[in-house]
Specification:
The structure holds two protein chains of two kinds. Chain A is an all-beta fold. Chain A has strands at residues 5-7, 10-14, 19-24, 31-37, 44-50, 55-58, 61-66, 71-76, 85-92, 104-109. The termini of chain A are far apart. Chain B is mostly beta strands. Chain B is 0% helix and 53% strand. In chain B, the strands form two sheets. In chain B, strands 2, 4, 5, 6, 9, 10 and 11 form a seven-stranded mixed β-sheet that branches. Chain B has a four-stranded antiparallel β-sheet with strand order 1-3-8-7, with no helix packed on it. Chain B is globular. Chain B starts with a strand and ends with a strand. Classes of the chains: A mainly beta, B mainly beta. Chain A binds chain B through residues 1, 30-31, 33, 40-45, 48, 88, 92-103, and chain B through 2, 4, 33, 35, 42-43, 45, 48, 55-56, 58, 88, 90, 92, 97-99, 101-107.
Chain lengths: 110, 113
């Protein structure tokens, strides 16, 4: 198992702006997953991108994966106050449990 | 609602005591995972069970143990509790083995006083 490292640790933006957070990892992966956690709640799966995919969209979310750089980014477009949460990436190798880093804490103010 | 149920939601206990946290996975999910989240340690993977068998072990202390029963529910036993064990304990489940999307419960808040 390996853990991803999210960057930045904290991000503050205004409603309507885009939020970009990055994830780096060390070894080859099968897929990479992004999760969101609202304060004190369980993590919620957002999106899974496989190692042979470069980009994936889900609603206002856009995830990219660059396996040559061992990095991924999560873009949230037109952010809303409800997007305020912590975001975690989980690079996944075959047959291993998901390990989470410290996450990016996103604050969206109105 | 993820479909993963954890009980109790909140628990306050004294140092040296033992507690059991319970988890019912989503219907049909064979894998159960336990995580511990605290302010200083972040979200730590403790252990995974798959269809009753231990599959992977993370940073689980020797004072902690877990099991998964034939009906697939799981229990995490925490003994000789210390102040530092105060944390939010999550259970998660997935349909198959590791590598897939996992679904988290809402957690059990443990406060050790």
């Amino acid at each position: 198992s390996q853990q991803g490292e999210e960057d930045p640790q904290a991000l503050s933006i205004q409603e309507g702006e885009n939020a970009t957070m990055n994830c780096s990892y060390k070894t080859s992966i099968n897929n990479l997953q992004w999760y969101r956690q609202n304060s004190g709640r369980g993590l919620v799966h957002l999106i899974l991108i496989r190692s042979n995919e470069r980009e994936k969209h889900s609603g206002r979310l856009r995830v990219t994966l660059d396996t040559s750089k061992k990095s991924s980014s999560l873009l949230i477009t037109a952010s809303r106050a409800a997007d305020t949460a912590s975001y975690f990436c989980a690079p996944n190798q075959a047959g291993t449990a998901l390990i989470f880093g410290k996450g990016t804490t996103l604050s969206v103010s109105s | 609602d993820s479909g993963v149920t954890q009980t109790p939601k909140h628990l306050i206990t004294a140092t040296g005591q033992r507690v059991t946290l319970r988890c019912s996975p989503r219907s049909g999910d064979l894998s159960v995972y336990w995580y511990q989240q605290s302010l200083d340690q972040g979200l730590q993977f403790l252990i995974q069970y798959y269809n009753g068998e231990e599959r992977a072990k993370g940073n689980i202390l020797e004072r902690f143990s877990a099991q998964q029963f034939p009906d697939l529910h799981s229990e995490l036993n925490l003994s000789s509790l210390e102040l530092g064990d105060s944390a939010l304990y999550f259970c998660a489940s997935s349909p198959e083995g590791a590598g897939n999307t996992i679904y988290f419960g809402e957690g059990s808040w443990l406060t050790v006083v």
